[in-house]
Amino acid sequence: MRKVLSDKKTIITVLSIILVLTIMSSTTYAIFFRVNTFENTESYTAGVLDIQVEEGSTLSLANTLPITDSEGASLTPYTFTVKNVGNLTYTFDLKMLSTTSSNPINSSYIKVKLDNNEPVLLSSLTNGIIGSDITLSPGKSITMSIRIWLDINTPNTEIGKSFSAKIVTDGVGSEYVKPNTGAATISNIFTSADKTTVTNNNVEYQYAESVGMMEDVGGNIRYYGAYPNNYVSFNNELWRIIGVFKDIDDGTGKTETRIKIARSESIGNYEWDDNENEWSTSTLQTYLNGTYLNGLTSEAQGMVDNAKWNLGGSSTYQGLYANDYYTFERGTTVYSGRSTEWIGKVALMYPSDYMYAGDLSKCSKDGYNWDTDQTNCRDTSWLRNTSATQWTLTPLSGGSGGVFCVDGSGFVGILYVTNSFASRPVLYLASTVEITGGEGTSGNPFTLN
Predict the structure, then answer these.
(1) Coil, helix or strand for 32?
(2) Which range of residues forms the domain containing residue 264?
(3) How far is C-alpha 319 from the geometric centre of its chain's CA atoms?
(4) Which residues of 235-361 form beta strands (DSSP E)?
């Protein structure tokens, strides 16, 4: 058998195969119309499908020999990129259509391989389709590669014949449906789950125990408990979703619902400041929004947007529950001359973030006494994943240098800004960020786009 194949290769060297790849390029279609009727007046909005094709490498096959599939799969492919620059989703088939004018090679002996798919005989294709139902959303692109060769079983009867073809995209545009944002995805997890009512400090909360989520006093959705599935891959690191927060101002007056995340681990011990509890000028704020932010990957930086952070404080740290912290954090009570708001990208958690991350169905203590009931209070908050003392964003309003912190033993207290404690960056993702996969576990975290 080997001798026959060897002889065949010797005899068929005069066979010529020529592949001409012609791609549909830069074609615009206004093919979708949406009709809205209001007071007997019709308005029409046309969608635009605009496809661009970027040429890739050149594939030229002449005087070719029959080869095995493994040899064919190792050939240098012809590559090209299709990009949707319109505002309609484009769903298409990729076709290889023969343009041979005379004496064509029998398609039963031509093998075609698209990307990493299995090679197929051209004769086995329906209407020449080598790839079907490929979908491109507006602004997206896809790069594809094609390999073509003569099947090892090509007979000598094909000597002197030729083959040429064109590659075309054949599809249709459809109305672009904006995908759910990441915030909507997380919110839907909570909305779809069964709820129970939990009362803490005379405030009723909606808890979805099956998914480890709850709704706080402000109507924001948060992850709670010791081990919720709120892990997310960000900056090639594990971060965790604090929750989905409503009416987050980007500093221009535009408010949106956005995801708030915290780094899973501290980035190290830092002073809050070297003198006073003014966050807008503090040394830690300057570092986080300078050196640290600039050190994130470009992809991660593109997912972060400015937010207005509230800097309201309290003159006491005893007898305060989660709802109490939430209220004064968003107030205007501050030490003389201090800012009540700050606009920026990277900050720290609030005391209320720490307490709402605990299980308020079990914990009946105020924050200052969480260490006295470790099982039901301190150890139920996923934000206490360390025995180190952690800084928060919130200043003491009754003094010039005090800032709220989560003590290493688990209670919420006050310490002076010149101390160096664990610092966990916290930020709001841009409202356009989507969750594209993952389950939220540490081994399979949510992925972002």
Answers:
(1) strand
(2) 182-448
(3) 40
(4) 237-249, 255-263, 269-271, 307-310, 341-344, 346-347
- Angle, CA of 407, 395 and 272, to the nearest 5°: 70
Q: Specify the long-range contacts of residues 286-289, CB closer than 8 Å, at least 24 apart.
A: 288/346, 288/347, 288/423, 288/425, 289/344, 289/345, 289/346
Q: How many helices (H) and strands (E) does the chain have?
A: 8, 27
Q: Are residues 77 and 132 in the same domain?
A: yes
Residue-level pLDDT, tens digit, the chain, 449 residues = 222 223 333 333 333 334 444 443 333 222 222 222 223 233 333 455 555 555 555 555 555 788 899 998 988 888 878 888 777 777 888 888 888 778 888 889 889 998 888 999 988 988 888 888 888 887 788 888 888 888 998 888 887 787 777 777 777 766 555 567 899 999 999 999 999 999 999 999 999 999 999 999 999 999 999 999 999 999 999 999 999 999 999 999 999 999 999 999 999 999 999 999 999 999 999 999 999 999 999 999 999 999 999 999 999 999 999 999 999 999 999 999 999 999 999 999 999 999 999 999 999 999 999 999 999 999 999 999 888 999 999 999 999 999 999 999 999 999 999 999 999 999 999 999 999 899 999 999 999 98
Of 284, 212, 250, 191, whose CA–CA distance to 428 is shortest? 250
The CA–CA distances, whole Å, from 337 to 278, 399, 415 equal: 9, 11, 20
Q: Which pTM does this prediction carry?
A: 0.64
- CA 131 to chain CA centroid, nearest Å: 27
| DSSP summary character for residue 299 | H
Q: How far apart are CA 297 and CA 415, in angstroms?
A: 33
CA–CA distance, 146 with 166 (Å, rounded to integer): 12
Q: Which of 48, 45, 46, 58 is nearest to 18 (CA)?
A: 58
Assess whether 144 and 188 both reside in one domain: no
d(C-alpha 389, C-alpha 411), whole Å: 10
Same domain (yes/no): 21, 167: yes
> What's the CA gap between 309 and 306, in Å, rounded?
9
Q: Are residues 138 and 192 in the same domain?
A: no
Name residue 426's beta-bridge partners.
262, 347
Tokens read off for 267: 């980035």
Q: Of the candidates 156, 174, 192, which is a domain's last residue?
A: 174
Phi, psi at residue 12, to the nearest 5°?
Answer: -90, 10
Please check whether residues 166 and 191 belong to one and the same domain: no
Residue 284's φ and ψ, nearest 5 degrees, are: -70, -40
Backbone phi and psi for residue 278, each to the nearest 5 degrees, phi listed first: -110, 105
The C-alpha atoms of residue 212 and residue 361 are separated, in whole angstroms, by 12
> Are 248 and 267 spatial neighbours (Cβ–Cβ below 8 Å)?
no
